[in-house]
Known about the structure:
Elements: H1 2-29, H2 32-123, E1 127-132, E2 137-140, H3 142-148, H4 152-155, H5 160-163, H6 171-180, E3 184-193, E4 196-206, E5 219-226, H7 228-274, H8 280-288, H9 293-302, H10 305-331, E6 338-340, H11 342-355, E7 367-373, E8 380-382, H12 384-403, E9 413-422, E10 425-432, H13 439-442, H14 462-473, E11 477-482, E12 488-495
Parallel strand pairs: 7-9
Antiparallel strand pairs: 1-2, 1-5, 3-4, 4-5, 6-8, 9-10, 10-12, 11-12
The structure holds adenosine-5'-triphosphate and magnesium ion (MG).
Magnesium ion binds at residues 393, 396-397, 458, 462.
Amino acid sequence: xxxxxxxxxxxxxxxxxxxxxxxxxxxxxxxxxxxxxxxxxxxxxxxxxxxxxxxxxxxxxxxxxxxxxxxxxxxxxxxxxxxxxxxxxxxxxxxxxxxxxxxxxxxxxxxxxxxxxxxxxxxxxxxxxxxxxxxxxxxxxxxxxxxxxxxxxxxxxxxxxxxxxxxxxxxxxxxxxxxxxxxxxxxxxxxxxxxxxxxxxxxxxxxxxxxxxxxxxxxxxxxxxxxxxxxxxxxxxxxxxxxxxxxxxxxxxxxxxxxxxxxxxxxxxxxxxxxxxxxxxxxxxxxxxxxxxxxxxxxxxxxxxxxxxxxxxxxxxxxxxxxxxxxxxxxxxxxxxxxxxxxxxxxxxxxxxxxxxxxxxxxxxxxxxxxxxxxxxxxxxxxxxxxxxxxxxxxxxxxxxxxxxxxxxxxxxxxxxxxxxxxxxxxxxxxxxxxxxxxxxxxxxxxxxxxxxxxxxxxxxxxxxxxxxxxxxxxxxxxxxxxxxxxxxxxxxxxxxxxxxxxxxx
Length: 506
Ligand SMILES: Nc1ncnc2c1ncn2[C@@H]1O[C@H](COP(=O)(O)OP(=O)(O)OP(=O)(O)O)[C@@H](O)[C@H]1O
Ligand SMILES: [Mg+2]
């Protein structure tokens, strides 16, 4: 606006200057009338010009105003648009921020899920390995690291047969399994680790995308499960069964032997009775036959016949004892529990071992076996046949230890068996003063197949079967204490009721 009024002032000055110039020009000419007329015309002309100029100015002012209004309008529209754009930008920004937040949450959830899955896989005690179609390792769990010593980073990308060379598979076989899309199972693979046999179940699960075979998405999960404990337990059970059927067989034989043995004993008794001078009827019967009975007995004595007969009788009685022992043994149903008299079982086991004809038998006469039980030692609810088996194993181990060739004890050899009650349990201890057990093998003696005896002398199952019977079938405990060179003591603790309500320390 100020600019426009400044322009008008300039225009007015310009018109007035023109008038003054014209007036001066007229005076200079000296022609007054003509000058006035001319002046008038000039003024009129100038006025017209001024009017025209003013009108032009006015028009341009109006135009300017309209332009300004238009400008304002555009400005407003622009502002409006900017506002709208800013608003929508804000909105977009908010949406973007929300999306980023969501993305972050999803990333955290994904991480959590990944961690959870890894923890789950790593919690599995079996070796779990992921492989791609070419057999290269894609996943390697902690158990795989622990068993092989190969770290995750080292295993990743290497071929499975390099990372896990003990796999009994060729590269081609693995490829065939992956392509077949069917699980492959190979049970009880045997391996020697630290000079001990271990057993594994191998399972290979090809990755199944649900469609036909696709090289890119294929691969497999390989699982190696250590089943050594299960196999050992199964072997123990088999051994247990075998021993119980051996017991049954022995009992069957004993039953069959009972009758002929009875006949032998009965008849030998009769021969002794009918050849003795002490019985008057013998002399009378001989006299009726015109025989001098004194001479007969003389002859018999000279030929040591009564001695032979006594031997037969003694042997027959011993056989009878063995047979009745065996029969008693068989009367105990293998798994059936009943009220059991432990001291009696121990006596039977001692007797059985003495007569069983074991290799160490010849030297057993040198061993002093003593038993001492509390006067009120209670009966316990247990399987007599199974406990019998335990006592036989422990006694036999003690005898074998005492009579082993590489052991020479300067003094008396003994086996002590004692028993007492402790709260609701009974404790039985079997001690010997044999060579004892070396510290480095003490932890292994209850393991199946662990033996220090020569091939053919020990299978290494006696103690593992006993352990199984005491701990699994009777909820008891069995332990050993021994100092090498100073004998060994096996301690058994059994609940009287056959059930264990509380845990205990042996
Ligand atoms: N009283 C003992 N004194 C010294 N060592 C013993 C005694 N009892 C057991 N052992 C040790 O424990 C090992 C395992 O005993 P276990 O009864 O399980 O098997 P084994 O006697 O060798 O064979 P099996 O009993 O099958 O004939 C024995 O080989 C022996 O080394
Ligand atoms: Mg043994």
